[in-house]
User: Fold this.
Amino acid sequence: MYKKKDIYNLLYIFIFLVIASIGLNNSLGISAGAFKPPIFYTSVSGLICFIYFLLAFINGITYLIKQETLPDSIFLFPRFKGAVTIAILVTMLVYHFLVYEGPVLSVDTDIYNLITHYFVPCLVILHWLVFDKKGIYQKLDPIFWTVIPITYFSWANVVALFNTEVPYWDGDFYPYNFIDLTKHDLSKVIFTVILLIALFIVLGYGVYKLDQKLAKQHLQA
Assistant:
């Protein structure tokens, strides 16, 4: 049978999905009738989180309906949870420290910016801290977790190359200036992307080390 923590886990995920859907609805322009493909990293990372948590919620509900004991993780490929967590963590850090033009210690109080850049990342991180089994990540996982940013940067460039009719903003066909091959040499774009990938790896190993530490504390408790 399921435990109380399982119910709290599913309830938490349900609340997360509701909040995340509000942010996605705004960023993708769904209810406004002006759908915008998820080309910006914030939308892509938020959508990945939503889908990943939605699949987990459906999986968890299925176990409850069958009255079966929930496994240690209801997420598809549990170790991939690290990739999803790092992807959305970068969304928050880059927005707050590089994109947001206000004082560093303040935040943009627009409700949709709060949801997509703060609430969703914090809820994903908190879920990992509270509900996930610790100690499952392996040493090379942070390297594999870069699959999301590498895929995104590759996909964004391919889309931009074929998009010649509808610019994203200010007449630009690339979502971000630093990957714009019409403004920068290929070598400069590659160098910038490598630096960003390195950031993902550093953050990934930070999560890995913390995960190992929390696992040891759990064993000692």
Summary: The two ends are 25 Å apart (CA to CA).
